[in-house]
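[audit] Reproducing an earlier prediction to check determinism. Same input, same settings, fresh worker. If the tokens differ from the archived copy the diff job will pick it up downstream; this log only records the rerun itself.
[audit] input (532 residues):
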Amino acid sequence: MRTTTSVTLASRLAGAAWGHLVGDATGVPYEFAPATAVPGDVAFGAPGGPWRKPPGTWSDDGALMLALLDSLLGRGFDTDDQGARAVAWMADGAYTPGWEGLFDIGTTTALALQAIHSGVPAVDAGPTHDRASGNGSLMRILPLALVERDGFEGPFVDDRGETRAGVDDATLVAHAHAVSRVTHGHARCQVACALYSLVVRRLLMADGPATAMRTARRTLRQIYAADAALAAHLAALDELEAWKGRSGRGYVLDSFWSAWDAFAGARSYRGTIERAIRYGNDTDTTAAIAGGLAGARWGWEGIPTDWRRGMRGAEVATPLVDRLVSTTGARTSTASPLRVDLVSLDGIDRLDGARLGITFLPGKKRDGYSGHHWRDVDLDAGTLRDGGWDVLFLLVEDLELRWCHVPDLAGALASAGVELIRRPVRDPRIPSRAQEPRYRRAIRGLVARVRAGESIAIACRGGIDRSGMTAACLLVEAGLPTEAAIDRVHAGRHHSLTYPEQLAYVRAWTGDEEVRDRVWGLEPSPRRSAPR
């Protein structure tokens, strides 16, 4: 397992958002069950439960979290807009998988959203009486810390094109109070939201749980002690810190510490969710709150692959999470759809009108020539399908799939109806002597399939070197003169096929064994300094 300090900011942001949603969905079937009725083997997609929802369905927790994320990314900090989006969830089913509508709503949240709908300013809508101390604002507060970062990574550009230089701790706390007041106005709820936001901020900076909590508590106490107007919040912080209950219930103080202990006592995302659900009672909310923390710590890669792929509602959540990740400067499948560059087949015997393309590894999450990529494998596979590509001929090795966090590529392509053919070649090399016979047979097979009218896309990690070499070999095999084949690849995919060893391999494609032996005797090409 990677150390948590090696987790990228993009991974922490996506991990927190998806960690919340996956935790929520995992907890839904267990909701309202006492701890004694929760089985020892907690499972994602468990059957039954009070709502009888399909596996991978998030509840009000996830929907309202996404509503806040959408508002913060689209409008900046605007409580009226936050309230309007929450009302759209209640009235129209916004932010739910398949727009199916809500199936669970807390009493305090319902009263607040009805007040907003009737014209009450959102920041004043949340009830403030003592019994209005549920976890309905804590369960949705996560995006505030994800969007309003403190600028430790430098200024970033939001999806409105505005540059943000970061938000200081005091502003984050004030905003957490205001977000809470949209549905829950009691000081207990505001303080829980503020402390959670400060903790998430520290986790994004790679602090461990103990350090994150210690720093957040100290910071929040200093902010409250410095402002006499926040005396009620300071008293509520004292109450929060003194709370001993851990029963997974809906009371905000109990919910906060149940989720925290589930996270702080675990060694993985999976362990966090299992511990959260074993408290019983409000299992979806406890697991959502804890899942946001765990995702911020262990990143997107820490969430079990089958849990992620088992989620419904990707069409709702993925574009929002992509917008969030884009604030790091990463290239996403939503903002930068997978591009397949065409290599001209004009004038080649029986290939006129056919299609051959070059692209990079779908779904990759790694630095590349154009910056950091944070791509969604299902969206990229869908782009290939929608572009009419029948086959992806992939040259990357298994190790590269792990580096780029694309373990589920085969499944994504199969679901999209795109055939995957793999012939791994070490980057940035040529096929080894042992690989040569299979590689050559594969190229001949591709030529036959293109002549039969199929569209073939060739990919390596960066879509530059091995892909360019393979496309050129295919053109030569189809009958194009060698230098013309190289020129067409260069014209179709800029900066491709530049290594002397790979160029020599293409030029030796139609040569005898002695010619090819000389190519294998060349000095191997050095790896590029930038990973792709």
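[audit] rerun output stored. Observation attached for the diff report: Residues 13 and 522 are 45 Å apart (CA to CA).
[audit] end
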